[in-house]
Design brief:
By secondary structure, the protein is of the alpha/beta class. The chain has seven helices and 13 strands. Helix 3 links the parallel strand 2 and strand 3. The termini are far apart.
Length: 319
């Protein structure tokens, strides 16, 4: 019975048996979707061989320090702290500032209470953070130039808000049904940095934000960097086709059990759509040698699940 019990926390992954029993259709479509992603072209942006730019991406360090490989840009997607005090955050900022990356870009997470006046601790009301040249983004954009890489420019946008998941001490929370994302991200964004994942993508079966997903559909950046859900660490391509839309519809269904899943005709049609678009993508890439444009989604949490230990390595993307 242990393997069919729900996980002890929404931030812990369910067993495969529990996942299958609670919604066989969702289990099936996720297996099919990931299988075709494995064989399709990667959505990693093609790097310029004469002037590549290396992004090193991390999040959820929670006051700890890790060995970070060098690169052109270091991105931290939030949760530097545990309790969110100015002292905790400043210590992490000092560590990041000491790293050799030419550019460093940072956003806050829900544990970084100091950055949100609603959750800031009383002793920190008059405190401030010395960013030491680090670019801090909070609902804001940044364009970085790279003279050593053929004067290329890359546009970044960062925002910290998350769907409500914890106590009031957590920063930047909003009610899960509230849309805080529509038309907020500039269409020219190349690298999107958020703390929450978009819903149904590296979010551990629904902890991500649905309104963020709609906004990412609109903008379609080259890379989307996020964290927050430690157990969903990894990377995934998004190709913005009808197969992906069908996949997201099925993942958004309420868990209904075996019998309901078997007789949901519209959901089974979506399974067929996912398979059909997956086959087309594989044929286009593997046989016709075509390129597919999409978005590389990366959950870059360094903390492994709920252990409090930084076991996940930083994610590296060359563009």
């Amino acid at each position: 019975m242990l393997f069919i019990n729900p996980p002890p926390s929404p931030f812990e992954p369910p067993s495969l048996l529990y996942h299958f029993v609670s919604s066989p259709l969702r289990f099936l479509i996720q297996c099919i979707y990931r299988l075709f992603l494995f064989f399709r072209d990667s959505a990693i942006p093609q790097s310029d061989p004469t002037s590549p730019i290396r992004l090193v991406c991390i999040s959820d360090t929670h006051t700890k320090k890790a060995t970070i490989p060098n690169g052109d840009v270091l991105i931290h997607a939030g949760d530097l702290a545990n309790h969110g005090t100015a002292a905790e955050i400043q210590e992490q900022v000092d560590w990041i500032a000491s790293l050799p990356h030419h550019h460093k870009v940072l956003i806050a997470g829900n544990h970084d209470s100091f950055f949100d006046p609603r959750s800031r601790h009383a002793p920190d009301v008059k405190s401030s953070i010395d960013f030491k040249g680090i670019h801090y983004l909070q609902h804001s954009s940044l364009t970085l130039s790279f003279p050593e890489s053929s004067n290329r420019q890359i546009n970044f946008y960062g925002a910290p808000q998350i769907p409500e998941i914890g106590p009031q001490e957590f920063a930047f929370q909003y009610p899960r049904q509230q849309d805080t994302w529509s038309d907020t991200i500039p269409p020219s964004t190349d690298i999107l940095i958020t703390h929450t994942p978009p819903r149904h993508h590296l979010d551990l079966h629904g902890l991500g934000c649905g309104s963020l997903l709609k906004e990412v559909w609109r903008v379609r950046p080259k890379v989307h960097v996020f964290g927050h859900v430690h157990a969903a660490y990894g990377r995934e391509s998004a190709f913005w086709d009808e197969g992906q839309r069908a996949y997201e519809r099925v993942c958004g269904r309420e868990k209904a059990g075996l019998l309901t899943d078997l007789f949901d005709v519209f959901a089974w049609l979506d399974v067929v759509r996912v398979a059909w678009h997956g086959i087309k993508g594989v044929v286009w890439h593997r046989i016709w040698q075509g390129d597919e444009k999409g978005t590389l989604m990366i959950n870059v949490s360094l903390t492994y699940r709920s252990t409090g230990e930084l076991r996940n390595p930083p994610q590296i993307v060359d563009i």
